[in-house]
Amino acid sequence: MEDCVFCKIVAGKIPCAKVYEDDFIISFLDIMPANRGHCLVLPKMHCETFLDIADKELENLVKVTKKIAKSLSLSIGNGSFNLVMNNGAAAGQVVNHAHLHIIPRFKGDRLRIKWSHKKYEDGEMEEIQQKIRKFM
Ligand code: 5GP
Ligand code: ZN
After folding, report:
1. Is the CB of 93 inside a 6 Å radius of any atom of ligand 1?
2. Other CB atoms within 10 A of residue 102 CB
3. Hey, which end of the chain has fewer CB within 10 Å, N or C?
4. What confidence score (pLDDT) does residue 108 get?
């Protein structure tokens, strides 16, 4: 897509610190990392969210993500990392080209990724469970 920053990176119009590339997937360092080594992994073909990624492509994306997470852990990391994907504006997605974040974690890095916990009212959990199951 013309005005998509990640499409421009894929096309080589914007430079990036590439860590992986094949015909369908690219991974590079996030320019404003949550921690050192923070990688982004994405399908080269423009699509907006997780739901738009074709199943076959998703399979490759997950496999490549695992490969990169492993390599990150063996190099500058230590085996602790968060796998994050923001889908949609309300979820904090800023770049509308679907991508996964691999964020290496270090003891005491004070990064805040964990959420606070809410509570269900009586019967609400079952109601929501049924609603979700209906659309499967
Ligand atoms: P989102 O909030 O959409 O899940 O994350 C977008 C990420 O892309 C952000 O962490 C941001 O730092 C990163 N980013 C935005 N523009 C560029 C860029 O031009 N180059 C690189 N390497 N990362 C970018
Ligand atoms: Zn794009």
Report:
1. yes
2. 24
3. C
4. 95
Structural domains for the chain: 5-134 (3.30.428.10)
Count of CB atoms situated within 10 Å of the CB of 17: 10
For the segment 59-82, what is each residue's pLDDT rounded down to a tens digit?
A: 999 999 999 999 999 999 999 999
Ligand with minimal distance to 1 CA: 2
CA angle 120, 121, 126 (to 5 degrees): 70
Rounded Cα gap, residues 83 and 109, in angstroms: 16
Q: Does ligand 1 have an atom closer than 6 angstroms to the CB of 15?
A: no
